Input
Amino acid sequence: MSKIAIYPGTFDPITFGHIDVIKKSLKLFDKIVVGVSDESNKNYLFSSEERIEIVNKALFKDLNLNRKKIKVVSFGSLTTDLCKKYKSNIILRGLRAVSDFEYEFQLAGMNRKLNQKIETIFLMSDVENQIISSRFVKEIVKLKGDIKKFTTKSTIKSLKEKYE
Output
């Protein structure tokens, strides 16, 4: 039986920090389902469809990662329901800094209360990518800054098109 992990997030846009977590998780699991959140109460720069396209281009075109091991999906449900749908009992979460920990700790606890069979595994991106956040990447590109060190070529192109 294959081990499947769910990696939920907004990915608005995907960054090298997210990609580090995906690459590391591929060493631990047979398949990763990247769940692109479609919560209606958030203010996204990109639509759900655009974010899925951006993630797919970043992972499979820019980085040539294995399509058989990664599935990118949209979801508007609880993450625990996404786990049930893909027969997974693992939620992956990325940690950047201590400031992330309290929120992530509470989120993991709530998910555990919703489904006791689900475990949350925290992975850290490489040191050089721990400072990257989607919010900062959007702000830098909006102000015409260079974001090559923060995300992939196709993602940069999508961001620049959005702000032109």
Remarks:
- Helices lie at 16-26, 48-62, 79-85, 98-114, 134-142, 153-163.
- The chain has a mean pLDDT of 94.
- The chain has one domain: 4-163.
- Strands lie at 4-9, 31-37, 70-75, 90-95, 119-124.
